[in-house]
Design a protein that fits this description.
The complex is a heterodimer of chains A (about 425) and B (about 290). By secondary structure, chain A is of the alpha/beta class. Chain A is about 55% helix and about 15% strand. Chain A contains 19 helices and 14 strands. Chain A has a 5-stranded mixed sheet. A 4-stranded mixed sheet of chain A has the order 9-10-8-11. Chain A has a 3-stranded mixed sheet with strand order 7-12-14. In chain A, strand 1, helix 2 (about 35-50) and strand 2 form a beta-alpha-beta unit. In chain B, helix 1 (about 1-35) crosses helix 13 (about 260-290), helix 3 (about 60-90) runs parallel beside helix 7 and helix 4 packs antiparallel against helix 7. The two termini of chain B are about 40 Å apart. The longest helix of chain B has about 35 residues, at about 1-35. Chain B is mainly alpha-helical. Chain B has helices at about 1-35, 50-60, 60-90, 100-105, 115-125, 130-135, 155-180, 185-190, 195-205, 210-225, 230-235, 245-255, 260-290. The chains are: A alpha/beta (about 425), B mainly alpha (about 290). At the A-B interface, helix 3, helix 4, helix 18 and helix 19 of A face helix 12 of B.
């Protein structure tokens, strides 16, 4: 009796599993759970379904992706990895070294990814010689946002050098306006720091310091100057900045309480959601200095068993880099498409500026990965640098001390 | 058969929980210890590399801050919560009429989660929103209370919130202790005309020594595993000024992909707990033998 029941149950299970596995399948782990982001993912889901695929959504909210990474670790350790995972930067290569990523070179070559993606962004999608991830968007990090009315009323133009920024900030401060809206969270400190570092070190210096982790550059006089500028910036922030969320800082710029904010282009979404128009109510410009710091979201493809899942993986990779998804997703998210041949007619002026700058900096070799957003180096090193940056910004540590600490922290984290 | 069952039932009943504890507590402690000697990053690896993770830990200024914070926070939290709890218990022990209601009020913070406590105190202590803004609004323009955003003082705000949360519970512990003191002795002392403060310092408090020990053990393990309060109140900030070992471990394990560091910091935390608990267990076991 017992064995009969068991047999019937397992028979049913086989029937059920064959019934469900008609066509491409993908289980996608991501942490796009907030309003605009969830809408963007829904676009991909629909497109995937209309191509005959079965999408299993696995959104894990919280901790800026920390919770999702914990879920991923558990899945990989139990030998049951999701088909595709929202991963970015060197984390992709880190997972590749654990030997769990799939090879999607066939899709990439069939769709000419090498020709349509900027070379330095394509580099992040490759594991040794194979393609293992598909890029979704490009966020620019080194933006400075400003309240147009406040700048007009005080006769200030968008600064193009850090000295101009300092002069403008002092003028604003005298007029009783908070010059820089900032939230005292470690990653926000790091975001401002890398924008300053790009301006002062230049593209080559930035690459040496934060991509190659060259100790001499980390200890150089220019780096001391970067920390000096950070100390100056500290004076332009209001007293109550500690722990403030970035969107509250954006709101301060919006309502004229503060003049500037240095933040990635997700801040644009806040302005637009509040009905503000770029160029009229708020201004966007790259932070002083040459270069472009990018933060690219991507889907890494994990090794999965079964033809249905492999087919799903390939379909997903194709759709993600496809022109339609790149356009619709990025319109929703405020970033720009990773591929350079998408029509930008419907994008706003800030996005157009971002796309132009990306092309120009890609040609001149100053298209650089953002360290503060986990694109330039691995978590342990980036974290070690952020520790020093935030400790310096939030205390009265001297720049010289900070530079020494920076070099030690990086050496200790390797 | 029944005799066999009689003999073995206790063992059989206890076996599952014994096995579960062996695996899920001691087994995983051993696993963590093993990992702390490896160079694990994103996923655990098992090749022993020696003490490298502990060396990195000792060289990390952030860990130093976390450990210092633990001692500052732990010492102040335990001492103040115990003193305050004892004081409240003694005051409540004066046969006042509404004792039941007051006791509930003081015990109530314990019913809140640390996250709620942390968030509420974050608002109260926020200079632009809470206490400072309110008192300035009354006209005292020069009033400053910015501990929450001052890296040198922020750890004390964690102490304040933790004491607010726990002193009512300590009060309840002490109150139970006060009630369990033999009333005959106290009456005898009163008959002899001994003043009340002497009754407390010479008779009641010394006879409550075991309660002090329990309160100390409960509070110290609360202090060592403090995590959610810091996350809600300061997020470890400003900078990493209010990091505690538990938040350090979380950052390493879950944000930075540095499992080796997380494991070694967890081992140090466990050793701190052992340093407190082992003497306690030792004294407990010895007193039973006597």
């Amino acid at each position: 009796m017992k064995s009969y029941v068991l047999g019937a149950v397992s028979g049913l299970a086989i029937v059920a599993s064959t019934a469900a596995s008609a066509g491409p399948e993908a289980e996608v782990l991501h942490y796009w759970t907030s309003g605009g982001e969830a809408k963007s993912v829904a676009v991909l889901q629909e497109e995937f379904a209309s191509n005959g695929g079965t999408w299993t959504d696995m959104p894990v909210a919280g901790g800026g992706g920390d919770a999702a990474m914990t879920a991923l670790r558990a899945r990989v350790l139990s030998g049951n990895a999701p088909t595709a995972v929202q991963l970015k930067g060197p984390a992709i290569q880190e997972w590749y070294e654990e030997g769990v990523l799939a090879d999607i070179t066939a899709v990439a070559e069939a769709n000419n990814w090498a020709d349509v993606l900027p070379a330095s962004i394509a580099g992040h999608m490759k594991c040794e010689d194979t393609w293992c991830a598909a890029p979704v968007n490009v966020h620019r990090v080194d933006w400075i946002w400003a309240n147009a009315d406040v700048l007009n009323a005080n006769g200030i133009a968008m600064p193009t050098t850090w000295d101009e920024f300092n002069a403008a900030a002092e003028k604003l401060q005298a007029a009783g306006i908070i010059p820089l809206a900032h939230g005292g969270q470690a990653w926000q400190d790091a975001t401002v720091f890398e924008a300053v570092a790009l301006g002062i070190l230049g593209a080559d210096g930035f690459r040496k310091a934060f991509v190659d982790l060259d100790i001499d550059t980390l200890k150089s006089d220019e780096m001391v100057a970067v920390f000096d500028q950070m100390r100056t910036m500290r004076g332009f922030v209001d007293d109550n900045f500690s722990g403030r969320d970035w969107n509250l800082a954006t709101a301060m710029v919006m309502n004229g309480e503060a003049a500037f904010q240095i933040m990635g282009d997700w801040a644009k979404g806040e302005f637009l959601a509040a009905g503000k128009a770029p160029g009229e109510d708020f201004l966007c410009a790259s932070t002083p200095g040459e270069g472009f710091l990018y933060n690219v979201d991507s889907f890494a493809m994990f090794d999965v068993d079964g033809d249905d899942k492999k087919a799903g993986q390939e379909l997903l990779a194709k759709l993600v880099v496809g022109q339609n998804f790149q356009k619709v997703f990025n319109l929703n998210k405020g970033s720009i498409p990773a591929r350079t041949d998408v029509s930008l007619d419907e994008f706003d002026s800030c996005a157009l500026l971002s796309a132009d700058d990306m092309q120009a900096s890609s040609d001149s070799g100053s298209l650089l990965p953002s360290y503060a957003h986990g694109m330039a180096m691995r978590g342990a090193q980036a974290g070690a640098i952020t520790d020093v940056v935030t400790a310096h910004f939030n205390s009265d540590m001297s720049s010289q001390e900070a530079v020494e600490m920076l070099a030690n922290a990086v050496a200790n984290s390797l | 058969m029944t005799k066999w069952l009689e003999e073995h039932t206790p063992k059989l009943v206890l076996a599952p929980s014994f096995v579960a504890i062996m695996i899920f507590v001691y087994g995983f402690i051993a696993w963590t210890a093993w990992v702390s000697f490896t160079r694990s990053r994103l996923l655990p690896k098992y090749e022993i590399e020696g003490l490298i993770q502990y060396e990195r830990l000792m060289a990390s200024p952030r860990w130093e801050t976390a450990l210092n914070n633990l001692f500052v926070f732990g010492a102040l939290f335990i001492i103040i919560a115990m003193v305050l709890g004892l004081l409240l218990a003694i005051l409540l022990d004066q046969n006042i009429r509404t004792e039941g209601a007051i006791r509930t009020i003081y015990l109530y913070p314990m019913a809140l989660s640390m996250i709620v406590t942390g968030t509420a105190w974050k608002w109260i202590l926020n200079p632009g929103l809470g206490l400072e803004a309110m008192i300035r609004g009354w006209g005292f323009e020069s009033f400053t209370f910015d501990w929450l955003v001052n890296p040198d003082m922020a750890i004390y705000t964690v102490v304040i919130a933790a004491i607010w949360q726990s002193s009512g519970f300590v009060m309840a512990l002490f109150l139970a202790g006060l009630r369990s003191v033999d009333q005959e002795i106290i009456r005898a002392a009163q008959v002899d005309g001994i003043p009340t403060w002497r009754v407390y310092t010479a008779i009641i408090i010394p006879s409550m020594a075991p309660i002090f020990l329990s309160a100390f053990i409960v509070l110290s393990h609360l202090a060592i595993k403090s995590f959610d309060l810091v996350i809600a109140l300061t997020g470890g900030g400003p900078g990493y000024a209010t990091d505690l070992p538990a938040t350090y471990m979380y950052a390493m394990a879950f944000s930075r992909g540095d499992i080796g560091q997380a494991a070694s910091s967890a081992m140090i935390m466990m050793m701190v707990v052992f340093a407190i608990v082992v003497p306690y267990l030792y004294s407990e076991l010895r007193s039973k033998d006597d």
